[in-house]
Amino acid sequence: MLRWLLLLTSFAGLAHAAPPARIEIAYEVSRDGSVVADVVETLEHGDGRYLMTETSRGRGILALAGRFKRASRGLVDASGVRPLEFTDERPGRDSRAAFDWQARTVTTQYKGAPQVLSMPAGVQDRLSFLLAFALFPPREKSVTYNVADGRGLSAHQFSITPGGRLKTPAGEFGTLKLTRVKQHERIETWLATELGHLPVRVLMLDKDGRLLEQVAVRISASGP
Fold first, then answer.
1. In this predicted model, what pLDDT tens digit does every residue of 164-188 receive, in sequence order?
2. How many Å apart are CA 50 and CA 131, to the nearest integer?
3. Domain region containing 10
4. 3-state secondary structure of 50
5. Residue 50 forms beta bridges with which residues?
6. CATH number for the domain including 77?
7. b/e burial code for range 174-193 (CB count within 10 A of at least 16 → b)
8. What is the pTM for the complete model shown?
9. Staple 184 to which of 14, 196, 198, 207, CB 3.0 to 4.6 Å?
């Protein structure tokens, strides 16, 4: 199979591609075939800045848990994507990470006092790493991002393979697939080439053997 030749060909074109200036993707999250939550992700970028938001709400009895919102804002220049602030808002449990690129520190806060950490190279947050992949794609078979959130820093390693053509309720797309395996958990993410490599499907197998699927059902985009 010419998988790596096709992959390198995809990367050659990806360097000149970018997500639309504004795009909103609505997803349904299902467990064992039943829809349990709705997720809306929005990206706006231009003039050297970006804003990403992700809002989630459960269905049925899970709606009682309230709304969950994550957001990342930051800068984009020739050196890459540089997050400035990441927030994770949940009922009764908020957290944040602030990035100081001059001092090379990341300040995280989840419970208790803030914690100041040394900034590793190429640091991203739980949303911005997807934008970093789209705008500055790696040319290897795998990539590792040092990801920060309110709890601290962790290394996320992904293998990269062609994902083939994927049909979703929002449309059919050519894809690349990112796979992350951590102990007994496995996460597979399909990135749509026609959307500047933003996610249109995610499968997560957790340590208890439960399978969650997040799939795009509606896409709205504007700008180049």
1. 999 999 999 999 999 998 878 899 9
2. 9
3. 3-222
4. strand
5. 45, 74
6. 2.50.20
7. ebbbbbeeeeeeebbbbbbb
8. 0.86
9. 207
